[in-house]
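Input structure tokens:
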């Protein structure tokens, strides 16, 4: 196998694979690596190193001093940037190495490496304190909020060492949230810190993450616009429903007022009609009472006149009998005391009394009907449990007076009917005596004829 020889040739530089090397001084150690990866992957080194194309001879250039990293840390970072001694396309790093990569990629603005380290470390960091500290250092607000929530919800208290690492003010706020048991107020309690971390995180995002963030913001804006539109439509619908309800209630109120007015007018009209009817009823009852009194007076006058006339006739007859001879007077007395004539006279009186009884009973039934109708018309005023109608259930101006008048009229007509029935019974007794006398006279006539 022939040895490699240095051949100086002239030709054009390849646009891709013609890299200039760069020397870095880290903690006294010199590193010579291609500068192309630093320039295209980091805005920090793009400004620091300038263009990727420089002069052919760059050995005279002074090395670039890097602060904020140790030689061992820079070596781990170069392991990711320039993998060597491997045939695998997948690199394997420990947790500590990923932490170094996260720290340096954040420091030097290697956004793709920062995203890669975040994806590998996210499932490996379970301690909430470590998650908070790393989230603050690497500008990751989601890690910080996750750590806060874990400290609030875990049963163990926050120790003094943990409090020193996350800050005493943060510890006090977390204890307040534990006491209030309100996880929704994280954003308000740590608004300033989270807002600052979000701003810093945007400066360390990769192009893909920025695009995703922009899409996320556009989606949130669209959702916000949709929510606002829905809220606007909801408010418009509620306003429309409210106006319809107010209009309906107003119409119902107007209808109720109109109905109340009609009911009031109807009640007033019925009251006036009832008052007019009661006045007419009272007037009619008074007229009937007056007529009854006149009938009673007329009946008394007729009876008195008949009695006086009968007394005068009896006195006149007595005088005439006294003036007649004794035999003639005895014959006429016998004629007057004829039982058949007495029966006929009593029957005539009985017919007159029967008519009077019927008249008195008809008047009594009429009074009882009126009184019963009056009570029935006001029976609706009885309280639950009451069964009898009394004068306390009467209202109005004329009802008590009319009720007392109907009761008195019924009582008077009841007494008059009883008196007429009593006279009828007396006349019937008198008729019975005449019948007995007639029967006894018929039984004595055969004896008198045999004696003659």
């Amino acid at each position: 196998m022939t040895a490699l020889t240095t051949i100086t040739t002239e030709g054009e530089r390849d646009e891709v694979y013609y890299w200039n090397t760069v020397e870095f001084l880290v903690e006294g150690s010199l590193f010579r690596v291609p500068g192309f990866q630093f320039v295209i992957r980091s805005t920090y080194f793009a400004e620091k190193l300038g263009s990727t194309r420089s002069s052919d001879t760059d050995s005279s250039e002074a090395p670039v001093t890097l602060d904020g990293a140790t030689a061992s840390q820079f070596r781990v970072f170069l392991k990711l940037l320039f993998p060597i001694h491997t045939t695998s396309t997948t690199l394997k790093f420990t947790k500590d190495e990923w932490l170094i990569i996260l720290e340096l990629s954040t420091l030097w603005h290697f956004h793709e490496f920062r995203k890669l380290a975040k994806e590998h470390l996210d499932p490996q960091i379970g301690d909430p304190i470590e998650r908070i500290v790393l989230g603050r250092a690497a500008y990751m607000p989601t890690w910080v909020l996750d750590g806060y929530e874990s400290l609030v919800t875990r049963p163990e208290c926050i120790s003094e060492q943990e409090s020193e690492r996350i800050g005493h003010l943060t510890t006090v706020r977390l204890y307040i949230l534990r006491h209030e048991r309100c996880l929704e107020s994280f954003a308000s309690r740590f608004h300033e810190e989270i807002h600052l971390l979000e701003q810093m995180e945007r400066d360390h995002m990769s192009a893909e993450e920025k695009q995703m963030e922009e899409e996320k913001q556009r989606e949130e804006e669209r959702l916000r616009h949709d929510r606002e539109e829905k809220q606007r439509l909801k408010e418009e619908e509620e306003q429309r429903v409210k106006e319809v309800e107010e209009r309906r209630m107003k119409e119902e109120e107007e209808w109720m007022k109109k109905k109340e007015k009609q009911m009031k007018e109807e009640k007033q009209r019925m009251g006036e009609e009832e008052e007019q009817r009661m006045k007419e009823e009272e007037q009619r009852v008074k007229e009937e009472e007056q007529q009854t009194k006149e009938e009673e007076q007329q009946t008394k006058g007729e009876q008195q006149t008949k009695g006086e006339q009968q007394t005068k006739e009896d006195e006149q007859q007595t005088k005439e009998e006294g003036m007649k001879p004794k035999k003639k007077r005895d014959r006429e007395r016998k004629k007057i005391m004829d039982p058949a004539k007495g029966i006929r006279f009593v029957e005539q009186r009985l017919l007159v009394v029967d008519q009077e009884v019927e008249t008195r009973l008809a008047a009594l039934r009429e009074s009882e009907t009126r009184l019963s109708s009056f009570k029935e018309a006001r029976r609706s005023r009885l309280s639950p449990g009451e069964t009898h109608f009394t004068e306390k259930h009467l209202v109005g101006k004329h009802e008590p007076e009319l009720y007392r008048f109907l009761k008195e009229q019924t009582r008077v007509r009841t007494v008059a009917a009883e008196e007429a029935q009593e006279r009828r019974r007396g006349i019937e007794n008198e008729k019975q005596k005449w019948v007995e006398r007639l029967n006894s006279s018929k039984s004595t006539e055969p004896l008198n004829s045999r004696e003659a």
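Confidence is low (pLDDT under 50) at residues 1-8, 52-59. The longest strand covers residues 21-26.
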